[in-house]
Design goal:
With about 500 residues, the protein is an alpha+beta fold. Helix content is about 35%, strand content about 25%. Strands 6, 10, 11, 14, 15, 16, 17, 18 and 19 form a 9-stranded mixed sheet that branches. Strand 17 and strand 18 form a beta hairpin.
Length: about 500
């Protein structure tokens, strides 16, 4: 049987008992924490997956004891290792009186043990290991929770991810897939000639972008520094320097709100390619996301939170087309900014008193369009007002060569034909910082003039793409919250309890 505890009082008492057992082991010269290694040569999944290769052969494996049935002179137990779980059969006459009665029977559920023995199949057909020796490798001082599986208290699961992983194998599967997704993204980009690089996490200034940074202080330099809110400007410096295809899998930090789609620290991939544009980035998105769905989920068609998503079928619309389709408002019918603001008012959408046509278009998109984009959709040609780093469209300078893509009414990534005109970029940065200082007089936002200097040396025509890894993992693992795909999501600490 497996014993556990639910109440704090039970846990405290069981911990006291286990500490007494540990003291007794140490007094008897059997301190489990003195063990430094164990000769593991097999795993549970490998044995169960290839019985023909293992049956009758001696193996050594180790793991956490999850359950035990004591039946007099023999016992069955289940141990879990990094690959899965397997049953072991422990007989007094095989392991010895002292080990069986004085050790194994007194060990606790949750203890980590090593087992050597031969592989066999029980009469009920279960693949097992008949132990010739068992060794206590580490003592568990806290009992595993009796009803942890299916526990509705997700807060506890996120705070104690180590227990969540022990008790819920499907959680481990999610993070195994996360690792595979990152590996496949890297493989996809590497195979296309991109080079992975690292850029600074600590930056010397707050830039004018809307995201609020975390601030720290460098003692030696006696200056405030900022945790990065993007990797873009450093990566494009590398394109200036002559690396034509670069990417970074980077940790990003934003001092903003938290919900099911946002965590203060998260992972992005940003990539930049010289001599292409945003349409080249569209091709990469469609090809990569389709390949990832097939690799991770086994099909282009996946299920996410009860919805059927076809990752092999992408729709493309300009922002003006999408707004007209879902709101009925035609950007090109607005004669001026005032007419645009009037159209927004008719639709019940509040916009600033000085809103331009482009600003109104973006507000209408947020109000009417995004919620309808369930299947993979690329929305392109964004107003210049909200695209400070994108190149203007030559045939219509009110718009930029930018796109975002949406799945299940959620934005997954953002791409540009990168702005490489240093004069235009300087003007946009200065306007961006001016606006930020007007909205927040306490801000320390500055223009990154070194980046302007880099552009003045010449940035080739470049396509750039950035996307969130966490949302992608949510999609491909059918996870409803970003906290489900972060091993250690940001949590407010609880008072210390002993």
């Amino acid at each position: 049987m497996r014993t556990g505890a639910d109440s704090a009082e039970d846990v405290h008492e069981l911990k006291r008992i286990r500490l007494e057992k540990l003291d007794a082991l140490k007094a008897d010269g059997k301190d489990p924490f003195a063990v430094t290694k164990f000769p593991v040569d097999a795993e549970a999944a490998g044995i169960k997956g290839d019985l023909a290769a293992f049956e009758g052969k001696t193996v050594s494996l180790a793991g956490r004891m999850m359950s035990r049935r004591i039946m007099g002179k023999a016992s069955f137990a289940n141990i879990a290792d990094g690959s899965g779980n397997i049953q072991i059969y422990v007989k007094r006459d095989d392991v010895g009186e002292d080990v069986y009665n004085g050790g194994f029977k007194k060990w606790d559920i949750g203890d980590i043990i090593g087992v050597s023995g031969f592989v066999f199949v029980t009469q009920t057909g279960e693949i097992s290991v008949h132990a010739s020796s068992v060794t206590l490798l580490a003592k568990s001082l806290l009992p595993l929770p009796e009803k942890f599986h299916g526990l509705t208290d997700t807060d506890t699961r996120y705070r104690q991810r180590y227990v969540d992983l022990i008790m819920n194998p499907e959680v481990k599967d999610t993070f195994t897939k996360r690792s595979l997704i990152l590996r496949e993204i890297r493989s996809f980009l590497d195979s296309r000639g991109f080079m992975e690089v690292d850029t600074p996490i600590l930056t010397p200034m707050e830039i004018g972008a809307a995201a609020r940074p975390f601030i720290t202080h460098h003692n030696t330099l006696d200056m405030d520094m900022y945790l990065r809110i993007e990797t873009e400007l450093y990566l494009k410096r590398l394109i200036v320097g002559g690396f034509d295809k670069v990417y970074e899998v980077g940790r990003i930090f934003r001092n903003e709100g938290m919900d099911t789609k946002h965590n203060p620290e998260f992972t992005t991939v940003e990539l930049y390619q010289a001599y292409t544009d945003y349409k080249g980035m569209m091709d990469i998105v469609i090809e990569m996301y389709t390949a990832l769905a097939e690799k991770i989920c086994g099909s282009k068609v996946i299920n996410y939170q009860g919805k059927r998503i076809d990752m092999g079928n992408w729709t493309k619309m300009t922002m003006t087309e999408a707004v007209k389709k879902y709101s009925g408002c035609d950007y090109y019918s607005w004669s001026d900014d005032a007419a645009a603001r009037a159209a927004a008012a008719e639709k019940g959408v509040a916009v600033p008193s000085d809103a331009t046509r482009g600003t109104v278009l973006a507000e209408l998109f947020d109000a009417f369009v995004e919620e309808n984009l369930i299947q993979p959709t690329i929305i392109y040609d964004y107003p210049v007002e909200n695209s400070p780093l994108a190149k203007r469209k030559p045939e219509d300078p009110a718009f930029t060569e930018r796109f975002e893509y949406f799945i299940n009414a959620t934005e997954f990534g953002n791409a540009f034909s990168e702005l490489n005109d240093p004069v235009d970029q300087r003007e946009r940065f200065e306007k961006q910082v001016e606006n930020k200082r007007r909205e927040d007089p306490a801000t320390t936002a500055q223009v990154d003039y070194d980046y302007i200097t880099a552009l003045e040396y010449g940035l080739a025509p470049t396509g750039g793409l950035g996307f969130g890894v966490d949302r992608l993992v949510m999609l491909l693992t059918d996870s409803g919250s970003i906290r489900d795909v972060l091993l250690f999501p940001t949590m407010k600490p609880l008072p210390n309890e002993n």
